[in-house]
Amino acid sequence: MTVPGDTGRSRRTTAPGAPGTPGAAGREWRATVPETAEIMAWIETITARGIRRPGYPADAWTERWAAGLLAGFGLDVRLAPVEVPTWHPVSATLRAHLDADPARSAEVETFALPYTTPRATVTAPLDRPAGSGRIAVREHTFAELPQTFVRELATAVHDPEGAFDELVRTLSFAPGYLEDLDGAVASGVAGYAGALTGVPWETRDYYVPYDAVRRPVPAVFDSADTLDMVDEVSLVPLTRAAIRIVEGTRDRSFR
Question: Which of 91, 186, 239, 249 is the most buried (most CB within 10 A)?
Fold first, then answer.
């Protein structure tokens, strides 16, 4: 079987448990697990297509690719239509300035949080705590999960190299981030700026939350470096900030 989009390598694969396979003969399911290099090749094939947010071309391509891969395993694969709203961020900025000296300012490119207010310009006092009528600045860090903990919960484990003993997985979620965002919205903030200060790489492009729940607030993510620029201004009292989101979404559905 040749997987669509791979590098031309072939591998004959059958579904575990089907007649004539190791599963049917009573062999362990591990005999059917692909090698690490092959799994990594699949991941590289997918990531090479680009950003895979809902409604993006790379996402649709990956659906078809995965369906072909699974069908090659002998599975009955059906692509069921799903209709969802999509989020296509275009441009967003955060600008902080002093009331007493507007020339003292810092403006940074940001990323509009999915399904928040899609087009807006709001100016309000900038503050770390979430407060009514203010733009709240909240710092976020990704969670780390030791695989030794996951191993204890698993019903089966495939780790021939013993990597789980030392492996710690970085999860692309900040603990409590959703509660923090929803709490800020409930408190009546004028805007929300999430700073990705505890992330292993420098980025502002954080597509979270992706639950398609509308939240009526202008909200952006900025990176650790850009937050430092804003902090140089915001540490001074009477700092105000402006969040400007230009066409944060081209709201449409796809099937």
Answer: 239
